[in-house]
Amino acid sequence: MKRNFLIIFLCLISCFVKAQETQKLYLSGTGNDKTVNWDFFCTAGNNSGKWTSIPVPSNWELQGFGKYNYGFAKDSSRGKEKGLYKHTFKVPNAWKGKTINIVFEGVMTDTEVKINGKSAGVTHEGAYYAFRYDITSLVNVGENNLLEVTVAKHSANASVNEAERKGDFWIFGGIFRPVYLETLPTQHIERVALDADDKGIFNANIYLKNAKVSQLISAQIYTLDGKKIGSPIQQKVSKANEIVGLKSQVNSPLLWSSEKPNRYKVILTLSENNKVIHSVEKKFGFRSVLVKQRDGVYVNGKKIKFKGVNRHSFWPTSGRTTSKEISLLDVKLMKDMNMNAVRMSHYPPDDHFLEVCDSLGLYVMDELAGWHGNYDTPTGTKLLKELMVHDENHPSVIFWINGNEGGHNYELDPIFQQEDIQKRPVIHAWEAFAGFDTQHYREYNYGIGNYDNGHNIVMPTEFLHGMYDGGHGAGLEDYWEKMWVSPLSAGGFLWDFVDQGIVRTDKNGVLDTDGNHAADGIVGPYREKEGSYFTIKEVWSPIKFEAKEITPDFDGVLNIENRYSFTNINECTFSWKLKQFVSKSLVEKSGSVVSPNIRPNEKGIIKLSLPADWQTYDVLYVTAKDASKQEIFTWSFKISLPNKIAESIVKKSGSDEVKITTIDSLYTISVKSLQLSINKFTGLLQKVQNEKGVIPFNNGPIVQEGATNFKNFSQRVENGNVIITSTFDRKNSYNTLEWTIYPSGWVKMKVNYFPGDYFTTFFGVNFSFPENQIKGIEYMGNGPFRVWKNRMKGNQFGVWQKEYNTTETGEIPFLYPEFKGYYSNMYWCKFIGKEQNFTVVTENEDIFFRLFTPAFKQDPYKNYQINFPNGDISFLQGIAGIGSKTNKTENSGPMGMKNIYYDYEKEPARAKELILYFDFVGNK
């Protein structure tokens, strides 16, 4: 009996406490993964002119209504396309006598609200901001109520359209974020603004509604698991609707940063005579943000380099309607790329995205919308305050941005400071303003010049535009290494995170990026990882490994640099793994590493305790994990060089006789089941055939960006090998070619050649092979992603298998890794054909192989360049870089420039040498 009484008592206490808190009742779902159907009528476009239903929240285009619009599109239905919503709801009887608000987290774009046929208030103009109406007098408690919402896709306010609707992004309509009712006591806490700095000073401004004089406002700080921190802070109310300030000191709090996102919570209560009237809980973090002019940005006293990306709120099947799960997915991907910051482009995000940034640790630039146009001052003031009230207490938000690329209303700048208790810095994206140079897409030489010759803090809010496969990783290492050592650099933000491919319900579900307008992501629409993803992960690793050649006298010591701001390397963990690839069964050994004591921004070493037989392995991997056991990166260090691997694979001796005949213009060589035809005047391979038939690999070697001037061939038999070789002539045949056919059936090609100029886009040799005959490859080298000259980082050395695909980066089918392109550090490659296979092995270091030619993308700016040699399959010693939408390859930094070859004198000793071995009979 006593136990039952205790349970009832605790339930009553719980209900009493709940009754004093702000309570929510969702009328919609909470995201694209949980929706509620409302009645719906679309006035123009697809499926218009009839009442039906629609999930809320959603963008109506993705549900088959209205018209799809990209921001640049001329829309003849502009102003005509509206959505009419109806929904019936009940207000709980327990809410009687309380204040009842209806809250819209985001509606595109103008919103008229009626409750039971009566207006809830003035039309809300602006798409990305949470707003509410007090509907206490309009609802019938305990009965059915009718909610009617009219949403205009384009605003009646011209400045809203300029700021929001004329952007370089998809334009949607609809109630795209949740809608809910909230109830509060008539006397309540209306708003809480918190400021908790790195010294432990806690400030709170509490905005009260209808409070009585002599009521008490108090605050108690807790850890997230409920442990009290200090004593309650209290202040009496002296006016009904005043702002009450509370201040306290917390000793040695755990600070919030992107590396250590420590958080607390505070419970604020309005009470009278020891009775709680209203209670509000807020999470926060202790941290400080300071801008030192002509110096940099400091968080908690540490100078920060932002490794950031721009992020649209986006999902392909639901447009701007997302979910907590999508926010978690996106932030985890950013953290996995070793990013520490994100810019909200070009509008404020969902609340749950900021919650995840708070909990996992990302610095956030929160943006008042304005692409190339801006809000007028009255509208902007209202929306700015809505932005502030919604986002101000998130410790992740460390900057406000007042518009983008000219979309700045200067009259709003002081209002940020007036409204923000934390006085966070305000910047203008793409403008020199307030001591920051945030200009976008400056070419390497110009942008780097700003570090050396200017006085502003340089922090591009967009750089290395990622259209298709350009930008992002391509050029990043050049930019970042200069940013890292430049005192005036505060890092930067890549454009952008995700390809915005939307499912077109009007085009049979095709994923549409509006051509090249929205194919700018590091990841695809469903977060498919492109090659640049892994380049960024390595280049932005907070642990930097110094380049190291592993030689026989390697003592296990690797030099590293700590590029964290707050983390000692001894908080991370390291492990090593040795792999051997030559044997039939993969052989591995692994071990752990003692993490050294290396403080932020200092250098040191790690010492690997490798087994005595480590030299018998082919590669050493070293993996670093952060304090939360998430992988930072895995680095590869080659042990075996190509000549060693080639020696173990290529079999030269054999009992079969190599025969050669000359018929007309051809040398015909046969051994075992192999028959080769080589042109006796040019030395080019004409035909390969074995017992299974013809292998369509021929017409090579053609020297790329040089002369294919092999001449005056002779043949001889030496130690059972047939050798066909050209004659060197300084004027007419300075490039030389030698074929050796061994009794084993292996074929050796040795080319000595001179690139055609001092500066070359690529150099090496080409062969022909019909693309429609390839099924895939298996190779030993860096993989699994293709590379560009200015995007070499991110891969690992190993043995990789790839099936043929026609993926073009940023386009359907978003299947990665791509197949066609350049691959680095080739040791051997097995080409898997539809009819039969063949293998190519090299004993040269630093060889690239090229697989066919990706499709050229149309770029109106003519900066995005895909440069490939002639032929189909190439073996190269220099490859091309790639440009971006905003910069040509050569303007993206030294790595994007052409290859330089100084030994131009036509003497044999100065020539480049390329040696390949071919197995056309299946020896390997």
Helix content: 10-25%
The CATH architecture designation of the largest domain is Alpha-Beta Barrel
The CATH superfamily of the largest domain is: Glycosidases
Count of discrete structural domains: 6
- CATH fold group of the largest domain: TIM Barrel
Structural class by secondary-structure content: mainly beta
**Unreliable runs, pLDDT <50, ≥5 residues?**
1-17
Strand content: 35-45%
* Average pLDDT metric: 94
Count of alpha and pi helical runs: 10
Query: How many E strands?
Result: 64
Distance between the termini: 82 Å
Walk me through this protein's architecture.
The protein is mostly beta strands. The protein folds into six domains: 165 residues, Galactose-binding domain-like (Jelly Rolls); 97 residues, Immunoglobulin-like (Sandwich), CATH 2.60.40.10; 238 residues, Glycosidases (TIM Barrel), CATH 3.20.20; 96 residues, Immunoglobulin-like; 105 residues, Distorted Sandwich (Beta-galactosidase, Chain A, domain 5); 148 residues, no CATH class. The protein has ten helices and 64 strands. The protein has a nine-stranded antiparallel β-sheet with strand order 50-51-52-53-64-60-59-56-57, covered by helices on one side. Strands 2, 3, 5, 8, 9, 10 and 12 form a seven-stranded antiparallel β-sheet that branches. The protein is elongated and about 110 Å long. The N and C termini lie far apart (82 Å). The N terminus is likely disordered.
Compact overview of the structure:
Keywords: Calcium, Glycosidase, Hydrolase, Signal. This protein is mainly beta and 924 residues long. It contains 10 helices and 64 strands.
